[in-house]
Write a structure and sequence with these properties.
Number of helices: 5
Helix content: 10-25%
Structural class: alpha+beta
Largest sheet: 7 strands, mixed
Oligomer: single chain
Distance between the termini: 32 Å
Strand order of the largest sheet: 1-2-3-4-5-7-6
Low-confidence stretches: none
Mean pLDDT: 94
Length: about 190
């Protein structure tokens, strides 16, 4: 298996990873940290997908996709922190005033897990941010030690995967996900 990571500009492939099985369902679409909470609550059903389709058509796509051949098998959301709710978070601190990028969601399709795809997604997100001129990239994974993380809450990633990718612990947070504390991990790109 050869995994290739590319910018998420193909809406059909993004929909395959983060969209609902039923077009009218209200699923996250990976928008909850990307847009203001008021807009997130207002967008219902198909309007959520339409919003994401617009993001895929933008000059800077909303993240990266991992492919096994032509099949999309993974997704990572990555964008300038200033364009996300992390810009105003009271639970996840700012380390400094650099215009860092945030990597906050990693999703691997069932049937493709435990094959290194999340590692490829982290590396691809780093390269995507670097190509866009980001001076650093942050992630906010759970610090679960050896404890198991519920799959529905594993989207934030786990600390050891970011450490393997060269990220370092930059700060503790007051955010907790699935009973595990989240930490701010960072990788300087300059």
């Amino acid at each position: 298996m050869t995994i290739e990571v590319r910018p998420a500009s193909d809406f059909a492939d993004v929909r395959a990873l983060v969209g609902p099985k039923s077009p009218g369902a209200n699923v996250c679409w990976c928008l909850s940290y990307r847009i203001p909470s008021k807009l997130n609550n207002e967008l219902r059903g198909p309007a959520r997908g339409e919003y994401v389709a617009g993001l895929c058509r933008a000059q800077t796509p909303p993240g990266v996709l991992a492919y096994d051949g032509d099949e999309p098998v993974g997704w990572a959301a990555v964008a300038p922190r200033s364009d996300t709710s992390f810009a105003h978070s009271r639970k996840i601190p700012h380390v400094d005033d650099l215009p860092v990028w945030s990597l906050w969601c990693i999703r691997v399709r069932p049937g493709h897990r435990k094959q290194g795809i999340s590692h490829a997604l982290i590396a691809g997100a780093v390269e995507f941010a670097r190509a866009q001129g980001a001076p650093a990239i942050e992630a906010y994974p759970v610090d679960n030690g050896d404890a198991r993380v519920d799959m529905t809450m594993a989207y934030a990633g786990i600390r050891k995967n970011f450490e393997r990718a060269g990220f370092v612990h930059a700060a503790d947070t007051t955010s907790v996900l699935a009973g595990h504390p989240r930490v701010l991990m960072r990788l300087d790109l300059c």
